[in-house]
Write a structure and sequence with these properties.
The complex is a heterodimer of chains A (304) and B (177).
Chain A (H helix, E strand, L loop, with lengths): L2 H9 L4 H22 L9 H10 L8 H24 L12 H23 L2 H32 L4 H5 L5 H17 L11 H4 L9 H26 L6 H25 L5 H29 L1
Chain B lengths: L1 H13 L2 E6 L5 H8 L13 E2 L8 E5 L4 H13 L5 E5 L1 H5 L21 E3 L6 H18 L11 E2 L5 H14 L1
Parallel strand pairs in B: 1-2, 1-3, 3-4, 4-5, 5-6
Helix pairs in contact in B: 1-5
The chains are: A mainly alpha (304), B alpha/beta (177).
Chain lengths: 304, 177
């Protein structure tokens, strides 16, 4: 991958030019689906865009010192990391890539939740600190499963190239890995039943409590980009291999949309679990599942 | 630049985020505010979101007749809402102190402490009146921009109660005082 293709992927497709409208669209789909499930009509189509522009025009409180600078920096780091993660997705056939880009993608996907944890603690709000602690506990528990699921698919193919993983032949192992990823996505995107860090009935807005104006707009944007990156990762793993460029884009968008709908329906149909129940769920149930996937992947590799 | 300002006005009108504060209310108005978010009235169609933190909010919705204890809290929360902001007083209590008018535990009405943009009178007001009040406040917010609100502006009165009913209530307050 040379500099031009890297920039084109970061800025045009599937990077910012595609990902930002897609992020707003997915956020709208989520709100609309929840509203329809509750028998409401829901927000208008442009609502996430209106929210974003309005937040850009609001004032922010003055925060002196290093703490204030850090609070400005965290949302920007989160947005850039999420945008970079979206830019790495191998949507187009023969879009290039490099050995080990899967590891970079996983690191970039993890960075926004690290920023959320740091932001909650640097805001010094009691609700922010509780939210950050919950986010930290949650990310320790779901990330083991998330990484094992990805590693099981990668280990069976003996590669860490996203491009190679996207064009896998269909196998039961792949289904197992994808299901494990889907179980982790609600926790990664702070959706019910794992919406603990931003549980508004308990701790107001969690780590975001002290954020206002353009900084909050950046958090909303990074959350939307996380939607695109998280659903896009699963979509690229399950998408069938086609050589036509526009067809692969279409398949990517349709699959992402289906995953967003699935997650929204689950979020609307469930209530929030307690933190200990959530941690127990990830460590007891899904960890066994993910370890099985890794073992079978290694077994497949040695047999081959 | 002009286009950006117009877009900003439009977006402010379409995306009012609320923060709800109770200043000693009997919960009647609070229940009606929550009812306006339920499927029957569905405030989210207007872009309304009930936010947990005053930092995120555009419109401060205050219920209750403003007790002595609540005054400092109201001023703090009003300061925590980032500008441009608007205030909606829900119910008859923050407007006139209602039946509690002689109570020595009260320090109302609300507009003695913070500038109020829209009053929604009623005991309690209907959810559609609350929605109308929020929509009016959002329109005021869009026009005002970042300019600080002047306390002297006569507030809007929204809902079933007409102007003269407010006047008669405030007259009776003067007589009793």
């Amino acid at each position: 991958m040379n500099l031009t293709t890297a920039l084109a992927r970061l800025l045009l497709f599937p990077g910012l030019l595609f990902a930002v409208p897609a992020a707003w669209f997915f956020m709208w789909v989520e709100r609309k689906a929840v509203a329809r499930m509750q028998g409401r009509i829901g927000p208008p189509f442009m609502q996430p865009f209106y929210d974003f522009v309005k937040l850009l025009g609001k004032q922010t409180p003055q925060r002196p010192g290093v703490g204030g600078l850090l609070m400005k920096a965290w949302p920007l780091i989160a947005v850039s990391a999420a945008a970079g993660a979206v830019g790495l997705l191998p949507v187009l056939p023969a879009s290039g890539g490099f050995e080990g880009d899967l590891i970079l993608l996983l690191a970039l996907l993890e960075l926004p939740s690290m920023c959320i944890i740091a932001a909650g603690f640097s805001s010094r709000s009691i609700f922010g600190e509780i939210g950050s602690a919950r986010e930290a506990v949650l990310s320790v528990s779901y990330n083991v499963v998330f990484l094992l699921a990805i590693v099981s698919i990668a280990a069976s193919q003996h590669t860490f190239r996203l491009d190679a993983l996207a064009h896998l032949p269909f196998s039961p192992l792949q289904i197992m890995g994808v299901v494990a990823l889907l179980v982790c996505l609600p926790a990664k995107l702070h959706l019910n039943p794992f919406s603990l860090p931003n549980a508004e009935q308990e701790i107001y807005s969690g780590p975001m409590t002290e954020y206002a104006g353009p900084e909050l707009a950046m958090w909303e944007l990074s959350h939307g980009l996380e939607w695109v990156a998280g659903t896009g990762l699963v979509a690229t793993l399950v998408a069938p291999h086609v050589t036509l460029g526009w067809l692969s884009v279409l398949i990517f968008v349709v699959l992402s949309f289906a995953i967003v709908m699935l997650l929204s329906v689950v979020a609307a149909a469930t209530a929030r679990l307690q933190i200990d129940t959530t941690v127990r769920f990830y460590w007891r149930c899904t960890l066994i599942f993910a370890v099985l996937a890794v073992v079978s992947a290694l077994f497949m590799r040695f047999r081959a | 630049m002009k286009l950006w300002n117009r877009l900003m006005c439009y977006c402010r009108r379409r995306s009012p985020w609320l923060f709800h504060m109770n200043s000693g209310s009997c919960n009647g108005c609070d229940i009606e505010l929550v009812a306006s978010l339920t499927p029957r009235y569905d405030a989210e169609q207007l872009g309304v979101r009930l936010e947990g933190s005053p930092r995120h909010a555009d419109i401060l919705c205050i219920t209750g007749p403003v007790t002595h204890n609540a005054v400092e809290a109201i001023k703090t929360v009003y300061g925590q809402v980032c500008g441009p902001k608007a205030v909606v007083a829900i119910g008859s209590c923050p407007a006139t102190m209602n039946v509690f008018i002689d109570s020595r535990t009260l320090d109302g009405p609300l507009d003695r402490h913070i500038p109020v943009d829209v009053f929604v009178p009623g005991c309690p007001p209907r959810p559609d009146a609350i929605l109308l009040g929020v929509a009016k406040a959002a329109a005021i917010l869009a026009e005002r921009g970042s300019k600080p609100p002047a306390i002297e502006t006569p507030p809007e009165i929204v809902g079933e109660c007409s102007n003269d009913c407010i006047c008669s209530e405030s007259k009776s307050k003067e007589v009793q005082a």
